Amino acid sequence: MRIETIIPQEIQDQLDAINNELLILAEVELDEITDMSDYRQVLRVQDNNIALSQEHFKVIAKRILIHKTNGSELDLKLPVPDWTKTGSDMSSLIDEGTGGRVLVVQNTYDDVIIDEETGETEEQLISTEEVPVPVPTLKYLRNIIRRLKYHEAFEMFTVQYVNDIKAVDPDYFKRLI
Question: pTM to 2 decimals?
């Protein structure tokens, strides 16, 4: 007995695309490590754990070095800060067009006494600055995933995660330890 399956080209193309799919949620370019100038560095997200009912979100990210010439990958198990969020954690609203934080104007006022006898005060502008818009992380993630492709949502969150780490320690991803 012989079985022959005839697969049309459009279905074969779809099968090839599925089989060639990389199991990566997000990959973001990082700064070059000075001592490893033959390699470019990426932060790769392949695993995550989202338990919305328990208000828990954990991303497992890796720093991978990719040889600039031959494309071979090197996983030196470089450190990556913990990326765990809970229901009480806040993130910044992200501009989906640019990937940067959405900033709004925040004015700070102080009461200034204008008449010491009557105790009359008046608000006086002390400073104006641009500040990020805080949003609950897990609800924001759910909102983004509902509106965008899962991969796009993780790409946005990964870029923001890298920017947050760099804001605290600009050289974090440039070090080998």
Answer: 0.75
